[in-house]
Amino acid sequence: MEFEKGISDFYAGRSIFITGATGFVGKCILNKLLTSCSEIVRIYALVRVKPDSMDEIQQGNTQSGIVDSKVFELILKDRPDLLDKICYLKGDMTLPNCGFDKAIMELIRDVEIVIHCAGAIYFNMNLPQVMKINVGGTYNVLTVAMSMRNVKAFVYVSTAFCMHHDTPLEEKVYETNIGPLEAWKSFQNMSQECLQSLTKTILEEKPNSYSYSKYMAENLVESFKDQIPVCVVRPGAILGAYKEPFLGWSNTSSSISRYYHMLFSGYYQTLLINQNGTFAVTPVDYAVNTILAAAWRRGAFSDSGFVVYNCVPTAENLVLHGQIINWGYESVTKGSNPLVRYIFSPGYSTSNYIFRLKNRLCFEVCSLLKDPWSRNRKHSLENQLKKFKIAETFMPFSLNEWNFITTNMKQLHQEMNPEDQKIFYIDFGQINWECFVKSFVDGLSLY
């Protein structure tokens, strides 16, 4: 029976449709499928192409630039033929049917697994734009999935920060007071004055516009649960890899990676962080394994209904902000003079006023000592203000305590056979956080 199959066997002989394949998580999903589920038939990857470069990617061409990433280094060396399983489809998920014509829609009719991990990831996009991508785009992907003959599983990749930090996040979708599609369409035609007022109200209940759009998209996905077998995976802050594809592999261009690089490297004398607060960090390989295991659970078990997975550290193995910073700072400054390391080790504050004041004073003193007659202080000050804004963007996550229920995650792990637990590891209790942080720091410089 289907439920007796392991994860790799479940994917064998099947085709997948994935969005977000050009992103950090998407590339890692492709790599994991090709290395651990090599009997998969075809992976159809939606690739959004700019109008002026439409000829650069041809349908089905595996040399689109995605596989040039270091993620696929071992595959290119040992099994380059596996890359022929990837078929790139030009499209745009903000368009009806993702911009696919009839020929492409027919091509993907036999897809059985859909993984939707594309989306706008910037925290403070305006509501019309972020809702168009994260809600409207999700609706278009769902309608494409509806046209497929025999979908076994549809996995939507959300975020663990979709609610206010005061809400212990259960593994369920929280109801909205307005329909997701209605909200999306309303925002497109709203006056600027109304948008500003509404955004202010929303940000009293949600960390940012990104979190709000994910919260709405989750509701949209759940509304399709009687039509297609959907489920939701909520990773925390996705940083580097714990093991795969490489120890410490990270997306150095992401905003959170750049932010942590600044924290570890001494850009701030005082950090706007609650050092005793826990932080929901998710290694990218844990997120990938959870996504693939969630699709297996949804498609292979006849009793599997709509499920949400909080893909975050369990209560038995939490990690604190202060630990992350201390380990990162130690790793960056290893080999330097102990006294200098001690003097320049960062302090902490939960007050934005104190944070700005101390860093401004430090900046002014250092500037005067370095070059008392500098005429570029105004330009340097502008750079300092940018650093303040970056830190303030992460305030909802760096200052607040978040609590998560992970019952479904634990059950998912328990339902795997011993071999799958090793290959598709998702047990956060096995993570050595100090080793993870230090390998993440190394990865920031290596990759």
Task: Describe the 3D structure.
- Helix 2 crosses helix 10, helix 5 packs parallel to helix 8 and helix 13 packs antiparallel against helix 14.
- The protein starts with 6 loop residues before the first helix and ends with a helix.
- Strand 4, helix 5 and strand 5 form a beta-alpha-beta unit.
- The chain has a single domain, classed as Rossmann fold, CATH 3.40.50.720.
- The strands form three sheets. A seven-stranded parallel β-sheet has the order 3-2-1-4-5-6-10, sandwiched between helices. Strands 7-9 form a two-stranded parallel sheet. A two-stranded parallel sheet has the order 8-11.
- The protein is globular, with a radius of gyration of 23 Å.
- It is built from 18 helices and eleven strands.
- CATH architecture verdict: 3-Layer(aba) Sandwich
Q: What structural class do helix, strand and pairing data support?
A: alpha/beta
Overall pLDDT metric: 87
Which percent range describes the beta-strand content? 5-15%
Number of strands: 11
Q: Can you tell me the residue ranges where pLDDT is under 50 for at least 5 consecutive residues?
A: 52-63
Domain Thioester reductase (TE): 18-291
GO molecular function: alcohol-forming long-chain fatty acyl-CoA reductase activity; alcohol-forming very long-chain fatty acyl-CoA reductase activity
Keywords: Lipid biosynthesis, Lipid metabolism, NADP, Oxidoreductase
Protein name: Fatty acyl-CoA reductase
